[in-house]
Amino acid sequence: MTITADSSVLLEVRDLEKSFVRSRDLLGRPREQVRAVREVDLTLRAGETLGIVGESGSGKSTLGRCILGLDTPEKGEVVFQGENLMTLSRRALRRRRRDLQMIFQDPYASLDPTKTVGHAIAEPMRIFERTPRHEAEARVATLLTKVGLRTEFAHRYPGEMSGGQRQRVAIARALALDPKVIVADEAVSALDVSTQSEVINLLVHLSAEFDLTCLFISHNLSVVRHVSDRIAVMYLGRIVEIGSAEEVYERPTHPYTRALLSAIPVPDPAIQRARPKTILEGDVPDPAHPPAGCAFSSRCPLAQPVCRTEQPALLPRANGTLSACHFAL
Ligand SMILES: Nc1ncnc2c1ncn2[C@@H]1O[C@H](COP(=O)(O)OP(=O)(O)O)[C@@H](O)[C@H]1O
Ligand code: SF4
Ligand SMILES: [Mg+2]
Predict the structure, then answer these.
(1) Other Cβ atoms within 10 Å of 215 Cβ, number
(2) Residues 314, 317, 322, CA angle at the centre, nearest 5°?
(3) Which domain of life is it from (predicted)?
(4) Are 50 and 253 in contact (CB under 8 A)?
(5) Fewest C-beta atoms under 10 Å: which of 76, 97, 134, 296?
């Protein structure tokens, strides 16, 4: 067991590594490997929301899944309330798991179409707490109200609801056991823009009311900004910049963060025209064969020879953020 020194730290990720075998040779040995998460260190302070951004394939979901124990990392620690989840027995881990809940992009995939909404929300109560039926029903009604749905939704089926309503059900279900940590993985990405902001507002509201600590994962930087206290930017499995949401958005020090931000349209056309642009050229490299040195070097407008040979370390910058770039601003 590891004791975390700073008591405000609820969850800590240390040196996390997770690879997937993409292809094997004739003898079944790994031929190509994708290092989905590489040397990731993170802390989540009690009550904060940490946004994780980056293009598709950067390792955001794998990081979230490793934290929740849905993927098993090869290396590293996930320390929750001073306990390393990696070394817990199956039984102890199961008990811990109720404190850590996930909300996925597509609740339709996680909600059984043949079971009512009430059944879905009450399921964790039955499994983990053997809550008596009448008590579970009362709690389901309360949870539905909290997520902005009428209590009669308990009798409906997922197929009869809109995407936004289904996502509210998924949130109610995640809250059923009064968790401490929520990992929301692209939780609003499948919704239309106005429903997105409703669900985001709901999450912000509930995370204050339930005193939740959140990891909010999205490829969409405009979505993450409004919910996050801090932001981590990932590229090919690594965190390349991390800091307060304000600093990362207003004064990004990493060229990749700047490129991602300059791709967000600004409503005012005059500001949009005047804004410095960093065009993100090309696609994300094949994660099984990342560039040597800095993984961003194949697309970075500032790349120098040293970038192609030396991996930049994630170092503190003057504005209090950390970033991994030889030429960080
Ligand atoms: N179960 C898996 N099997 C094989 N490769 C995977 C698996 N899950 C993720 N990957 C690979 O790991 C990398 C990171 O994926 P992911 O964590 O889903 O990124 P993101 O959520 O940022 O889009 C990608 O290259 C992806 O193809
Ligand atoms: S280390 Fe070099 S290639 Fe990497 S982001 Fe910085 S300037 Fe660009
Ligand atoms: Mg993902």
Answers:
(1) 27
(2) 35
(3) Bacteria
(4) no
(5) 134
Strand order in the sheet with 238-244: 100-103, 181-185, 213-217, 49-53, 230-235, 238-244, 322-323, 315-316
User: Which numbered ligand comes closest to the C-alpha of 18?
Assistant: 1
State if residue 252 touches ligand 2 by the CB under 6 angstroms criterion: no
Tokens for 148, please give them.
Answer: 């902005």
Give the position, in ligand 1's atom list, of the atom nearest the Cα of 65: 17
Question: Residue 304 is which amino acid?
Answer: Q
The residues near 309 (Cβ < 8 Å, ≥ 6 apart) are 292, 293
Q: Ligand 2 pocket test: which of 297, 309, 311, 317 has the largest number of ligand atoms within 8 Å of its C-beta?
A: 297
Kindly state the helix (H) or strand (E) to which residue 100 belongs, with its residue range: strand 100-103
Q: Model confidence over 165-181: pLDDT tens digits?
A: 999 999 999 999 999 99
Amino acid at 31: R
Give per-residue burial for 36-72: e unless 16+ CB within 10 Å, then b: bbbbbebbbbeebbbbbbbbebbbbbbbbbbbbbebe
Q: Residue 1 pLDDT more than 80?
A: no
Identity of residue 283:
D
- The tens digit of pLDDT for each residue in 227-252 reads 999 999 999 999 999 999 999 999 99
pLDDT of 181-204, one tens digit each?
999 999 999 899 999 999 999 999
